[in-house]
Amino acid sequence: MEGEPTLRLRIFDLNCWAIRYLSKRRQERVRLIGDTLRREGFDLVLLQEVWSERDYSDLRVKLAGCYPFSHYFRSGVIGSGLCVFSRFPILDTLLYQYSLNGYPYMVKQGVCWVGSRAGVSVGITAPLLSFSLQLHAEYCREKDAYLPHRLVQAWELAQFIRHTSKAADVVLLGGDLNMHPEDVGIRLLRGWTGLRDAFAEARRFEGCKNGCTLVPNNCFTDKAELLPFPLGIRIDYVLYKAISSFTVKCDELKTTTGPAPGTDIPFSDHEAVMATLHIQRQGQPVGATLGTADLALADVVTEARAEVGVGLRAAQRQRYSSGRMAVLALLLLLLQAVAALGILAGLGTEQPFPKLSFCLLAFLALGVLVLATGLHLFHTMEVKILHGTEDQMWMALRALQERP
Fold first, then answer.
1. Averaged pLDDT, 200-228
2. Residues 6 or more apart from 197 whose CB is under 8 A from it?
3. CATH 1.10.645.10 fits 7-288, yes or no
4. Higher pLDDT residue, 204 or 141?
5. How would residue 3 be classed by pLDDT, with cut points 50, 70 and 90?
6. Given 23, 50, 93, 293, which is the most exposed site by the fewest CB atoms within 10 A?
């Protein structure tokens, strides 16, 4: 950006939902995404849930002429799903993994195994810090068991942005935050970092009503999940802020509205978000600020800390239950070992239990011991992380309250 008084930056953000062998019409949708990106010529493309590296490779080859710089963030058992395409040089990349990311025994949701994460790419000559990310999904709003984990992720992301963006001129964040605009997690993230919402700041908007990105008329969307929200929900965001001697304004924000042009299917179960930002250099550097009044931010931190505390107490109960189960399984194994030694010592004594039943019970007890021990270790880690985050929030809250 050196030498350029202004820059119009066009951003494309999409949760692709591209899982090999599972996603409906995946190859066709990936091809449509590639055709659209090549035709529209965005400056920066942020994609999530591109689980197949082959899909990324196909896109990279297809878009090489328009986006000479790209990066795929590798993480988790099957990948991070995050990738970035850019018309400008990507000077550096970094993958930050959240310390909590759901429960490993929730196999159906599987988020713990792929790992929600924040991918960071730095580029455009002068430092422009861009984040492509995804937070843990909600699944059930009434009984959101993952809310404490998502708040830990939002807090870690906010801290990460504050500590890594000091040398940047402009910070851009795009991705599926899995939070409604009024949720405590999004308020915590925006309040603590000073990031501004492109939807709220845009001079012109075109797309789904209220900027919703998960809408019921999308053929890939689970209609039952959106019954309480007939218009849909907005969980995909483009957030931004200027830090040094730049100003950033959102000239235009768009979302896709259903099927891709000339087809009968949309790009994904999420609508894409497209933002046009106007970046301008100004005379004097502007110092970084939190972006909200300290008292309002203190209320948000207090609310978030209370929710993390609820998760902490739940994790402590689960740790106790799994530990007790492990002890009981160990006692059962010891009793069986004593019985087996007694039989071996008294050669003339007849075995009181059928051999097969005795072995099956031993294997069952061993399996329960291994499973319960693993759960106990996981919940012990969860307790420590939640407790640590609660302490960090308390320190931040005290600092906010003590400011003159």
1. 91
2. 181, 190, 237, 239
3. no
4. 204
5. very low
6. 293
pLDDT of 240-257, one tens digit each?
A: 999 878 899 999 999 999
| pLDDT score of 304 more than 50 | yes
Catalytic residue chosen out of the listed positions 149, 270, 376, 379: 270
> Does residue 325 surpass a pLDDT of 60?
yes
Domain layout of the chain by residue ranges: 7-288, 292-402
Token couple for 316: 């402590």
Q: How far apart are CA 59 and CA 26, in angstroms?
A: 13
Contacting residues for 94 by C-beta, under 8 A, at least 6 apart? 119, 120, 164
CA separation, residue 44 to residues 71, 93, 272 (Å): 12, 15, 13
* Contact criterion met (CB below 8 Å) for 212 and 231: yes
Q: Which two tokens stand for residue 372?
A: 């319960």
Q: Which two tokens stand for residue 302?
A: 């207090």
Residue 180 is a catalytic residue = no
Which token pair is 137?
């999904």
| Cα-Cα end-to-end distance for the chain | 37
CA-to-CA distance for 284 and 294, rounded, in angstroms?
25
Average of per-residue pLDDT across 31-35 = 93
**What is the layout of strands, in order, in the sheet containing 196-197?**
90-97, 117-123, 128-134, 170-176, 236-242, 196-197
Query: Does residue 79 surpass a pLDDT of 50?
Result: yes
Mean pLDDT of 98-113: 64
Question: What pLDDT was estimated at residue 113?
Answer: 47
